[in-house]
Design brief:
Layout lengths: L4 E5 L4 H12 L3 E6 L10 E4 L5 H14 L5 E4 L17 H16 L1 H5 L5 E5 L22 H22 L3 E5 L14 H10 L6 H4 L1 H8 L8 E4 L9 E4 L8 H15 L11
Parallel strand pairs: 1-2, 1-4, 2-3, 4-5, 5-6, 6-7
Antiparallel strand pairs: 7-8
Length: 279
């Protein structure tokens, strides 16, 4: 059997690190795609990727396509949370740009390799907070009014809309995962009061290693099907073992998904080839 090949974004620490480490331990060939190097995963290879810079995304994808004919697994894990308003290199609000647009572009650019993979999967990591999100199509970049948490929940809702639409448009097994409430560096930016609240909340949080379990389940369990979502089975989906979960009604809105897709193609310049199962 040919060696399975995976890319995990944001794998220099936190949930992405534990996801990549476990895949490598299961004899996957793993490329960790991140801004910062981490050589603590035996057998994994680090490639530089900055999702806040579409030129970096294009360089990464071009390098991969030049060297490999196929990709079996892409885990869109990297993310930023509740930042003061800032913009990416390309002028996008940073949370929307990194969490959604960067991964939209990366997935589209890697599509030829994914379609050549062995029943390839794309796992997009969202958050239970996507249920609080709303797509503000009139002000996606928060230029008129900005809320740190609102921008984050919008980006996580965008993850859900994207992953489900990817499953509708391609034969890929596009799956969602969310880690529950886990110890990561994601939520460290914020004011002192919010930081104090998070410090108390972390007392009930699970480890980043446990937070990686839904992603691993979505990526490797043979019973997983396209357009499913997985998260912890505990109260409020905050912690526990992986189980199938339901996303919000807004996340299942096919009209919003198509609208977001068209906007994302326009903003990134990455257009997905029309694919059917018969291709």
């Amino acid at each position: 059997m040919a060696e399975k090949l995976a890319i995990v974004t944001g794998a220099s620490g936190g949930i992405g690190f534990h996801t990549a480490r476990e895949l490598a331990a299961r004899n996957w060939r793993v490329i960790t795609a991140a801004r910062h190097r981490n050589d603590d995963i035996p057998g994994a290879e680090w490639w530089e990727l900055d999702l806040a810079d579409l030129a970096s995304v294009r360089r990464f994808a071009s390098r991969f396509l030049d060297g490999y004919g196929r990709l079996d697994l892409l885990i869109n894990n990297a993310g930023v949370m509740a930042l003061p308003r800032a913009v990416t290199v390309d002028g996008f609000e940073r949370q929307f740009g990194v969490n959604h647009l960067g991964h939209f572009a990366l997935t589209g650019l890697l599509l030829p390799a994914l379609l050549a993979g062995d029943r390839a999967r794309v796992v997009t990591v969202t958050s239970g907070l996507h249920r609080r999100g709303r797509m503000n199509f009139d002000d996606l970049m928060g230029e008129r009014r900005y809320s740190k948490l609102g921008a984050y929940t919008q980006s996580k809702l965008a993850n859900v809309l994207f992953a489900l639409e990817l499953g509708r448009r391609t034969p890929l097994t596009s799956v969602l995962a969310h880690p529950g409430f886990a110890h990561t560096d994601l939520a460290r930016t914020g004011n002192p009061l919010r930081s104090a609240f998070l410090a108390l909340a972390r007392l009930s949080a699970q480890s980043a290693e446990a937070g990686a379990l839904p992603s691993l389940h979505a990526a490797t369990n043979p019973e997983v099907k396209a357009m499913e979502a997985y998260g912890p089975d505990g109260p409020g989906e905050r912690r526990g073992n992986p189980t199938r979960i339901e996303v919000s009604a807004r996340g299942r809105d096919e009209g919003d998904a198509r609208r977001l897709w068209a906007i994302s193609e326009e903003l990134t310049g990455v257009r997905y080839r029309t694919v059917t199962v018969a291709d």
